[in-house]
Specification:
6 strands; 7 helices; six-stranded parallel sheet; 222 residues; alpha/beta; Rossmann fold; single chain
C-alpha cells in the first residue's frame, strides 16, 4: 500500500492538529513543521524549508493563518503586510515549490483553509477577509491549471469552531450569542472540519476540485 506524504502548516493546535491527527490515523506520513522549521512570515525561511524536503509531498494543507483585527481607517502597514504574507503569499510559495513533484507523479491533493469571512464579513476583518478571499481565488485558478495532472485543489472555509483561540477571543456570553446565529445551534468541533479536509485530500476524492466548501453549520446561508 502506498504511503502518502502530507505537509500541514499550523498543525500544533486547533483545526490543524485535528487534521494532522486524522491523517496519521489513516496511515499518512504527516510533516507538521514548527515555526522554527518553517516561518511563514519569511520568504527565505519558506524557500529554505522546501529545500529540506527529502520526500515528494502528495498532500498539502495550507492551514496556518493570522487574524489581526483593525478597521479600515485604522489598519496599519504592518497589519497589511503580515496578514497578506502569512495567509496568502506563504501558501502561494509553498504551492509553487511543491507543484513540480506532484505534476511529475500525476497525483496531488491541495486544500487551503479559508474562512467564512471570505464570503461574509464583520467590522475589523479588512485584511483577514481580503487574504482569505484571495486564497479562494488561487484555489480556483490552480484547480483549472492542474486538473490535467490529476491534482485536485479545494478550500475548506470553517465557521465558528471550538478551538482555544475561539475561547480566548470570545466571552461565554458572546459564545452563546454566536450559537444563536448558527442554524445548527452550536460551534463546530475541530474534528468535524478535519473530516471534510481529509476527504478532499484522500484518494476517495476523484472529482471535486476548485470548490470552496463552507463547513459552518449553515451560518452563511442566512
Amino acid at each position: 500500500m502506498k504511503i502518502y506524504n502530507a505537509l500541514i502548516t499550523g498543525a500544533s493546535r486547533g483545526i490543524g492538529a485535528a487534521i494532522a491527527g486524522k491523517m496519521r490515523q489513516a496511515g499518512i506520513n504527516v510533516l507538521a513543521p514548527t515555526r522554527e522549521q518553517l516561518d511563514l512570515s519569511s520568504n527565505a525561511s519558506i524557500d529554505a524549508f522546501l529545500k529540506t524536503l527529502a520526500e515528494p509531498i502528495d498532500i498539502l494543507v495550507n492551514n496556518a493563518g493570522i487574524n489581526l483585527v483593525a478597521r479600515g481607517a485604522e489598519v496599519g502597514d504592518q497589519n497589511i503586510e503580515e496578514t497578506i504574507q502569512v495567509n496568502l503569499v506563504a501558501p502561494i510559495l509553498l504551492i509553487r515549490g511543491i507543484i513540480p513533484s506532484m505534476v511529475q507523479k500525476g497525483y496531488g491533493r491541495i486544500v487551503n483553509i479559508s474562512s467564512i469571512w471570505s464570503l461574509v464579513s464583520k467590522p475589523g476583518r479588512l485584511t483577514y477577509s481580503a487574504s482569505k478571499t484571495g486564497l479562494n481565488g488561487i484555489t480556483r485558478t490552480l484547480a483549472v491549471e492542474l486538473a490535467a495532472s490529476n491534482i485536485l485543489v479545494n478550500a475548506v472555509a470553517p465557521g465558528f469552531t471550538n478551538t482555544e483561540l475561539t475561547m480566548i477571543n470570545n466571552s461565554q456570553a458572546q459564545l452563546e450569542e454566536i450559537k444563536k446565529q448558527i442554524p445548527l445551534g452550536r460551534l463546530a468541533e475541530p474534528e468535524e472540519i478535519a473530516e471534510v479536509v481529509y476527504f478532499l485530500c484522500s484518494a476517495a476524492n476523484t472529482y471535486i476540485t476548485g470548490q470552496i466548501i463552507f463547513a459552518d453549520g449553515g451560518f452563511t446561508c442566512q
